[in-house]
Each structure stands twice: as C-alpha cells, then as structure tokens.
Amino acid sequence: NNRCVTLADYQLFASTFSDPTFGSVSYARASVRTQNGLLEGNTVNIYAWTTGPEGGLVNLSSGLKQALVDYLQTRAVATDYVTVFDGTSRPVPVALRFKTFSGYDLTVVRNRVIDTVDSTIRNLRPGSVLVYSDFVRTVDEVTGVDAVNFATPIGDLVPSSDVELLTVPDDAFVYDITK
C-alpha cells in the first residue's frame, strides 16, 4: 500500500528515492536501535549513500538527507520516527609491487593497475568484504602485468559494521594501530 512497515520496506523506499533538487539515493540500510527497545523501538535509522562524481558511494548532502527524512516520514507507520545518518568509511590500505611483461610501457600499466584497484573498491557496497584472493586475481589480470606482490592488504578486509564502506586508497588517511 505504498507504506513502510518493515525494515525491508524502509530500505526499498530509501534506495529508490530521488529528489529533483538534491539528487537521488543509490544505496540504503535500515535498522532499529535495540539498546532501549521501550523508548527507541519505533525509531528507524536509515544509513544512505548517493553516487559520487567518481562513481563510488558517498554520503548524502544535508538537503538530500532532509528530503529523504520528509519522504520516508510520509510513508512510515504513524508510530515510527525516521532518522537518516551517514555511514562510516575507511580507505583500503594498498601497497603492491608488480612486474610488467617485456614490451609493455610501465607508466601505462601502472595507470591500468591504479584504475583497476580504484574500480574494484568503488564497486563495493557498505558492509561488503574485500576478498583478498579476488582482489589479487583482478590486479594480476590487468593487461601487461606479469606478476604482482601485495604488501597490504594481506588478507580479506572486513568492514567493522554493515554500514561501513571501504573506499579507495587515501594517502592522507591515518590508520589507528592498536595491539
């Protein structure tokens, strides 16, 4: 009946929302806080992203967030209160060496490798694991690459939650190192 009743309904309506002024939502997750079910049981939290200029997911603008809240509140069950949040993000630490086949231009192959790494990571969705073996295979299959050796990552990269998005490498990002 064009209403949001279940979390799946909220995700569907949020994921397909578009506003002529502020843009559209590309991906959304819905959840209900359960820490204090009596007080918060009817608060529906939406984590939403839109497509950025590079093709990857990025957080919503404040205008798009408010438009999404207003839209979902009109579709919500009368007792539900809708909030929209940014998900978290973490750049993937990538350090690798590769060898080119004879006759291939190093700069051209290097650019292909960078584009492949970025494209692979941009195709991830919040909560998606970057599977190490698939990542290595994808880079190894770049035209001109003879061999590849990864220093990082050294295994599957798992987001800390289903609303964390792994993003392209960022040299300025500082990783927290804990024991």
Helix/strand layout:
Elements (H helix, E strand, L loop, with lengths): L6 H9 L2 E2 L3 E2 L2 E6 L4 H4 L2 E9 L5 E3 L2 H14 L5 E5 L2 E4 L3 E6 L5 H17 L9 H9 L4 E8 L11 E4 L12
Parallel strand pairs: 4-6, 7-10
Antiparallel strand pairs: 1-2, 3-4, 4-5, 8-9
User: Secondary-structure element sequence?
Assistant: HEEEHEEHEEEHHEE
Tally of DSSP helical segments: 5
Number of beta strands? 10
Q: State the end-to-end distance.
A: 52 Å
Strand content: 25-35%
Residue share in helices? 25-40%
Tell me the Rg in angstroms. 20 Å
Low-confidence stretches: none
Secondary-structure content class:
alpha/beta
The average pLDDT value, as a whole number, equals: 92
| Overall 3D shape | elongated
Major sheet summary line: 4 strands, mixed
Q: What would you say this structure looks like, in words?
A:
By secondary structure, the chain is an alpha/beta fold. The chain has helices spanning 7-15, 37-40, 62-75, 106-122, 132-140; strands at residues 18-19, 23-24, 27-32, 43-51, 57-59, 81-85, 88-91, 95-100, 145-152, 164-167. Strands 3, 4, 5 and 6 form a four-stranded mixed β-sheet that branches. A two-stranded antiparallel sheet has the order 1-2. The longest helix has 17 residues, at 106-122.
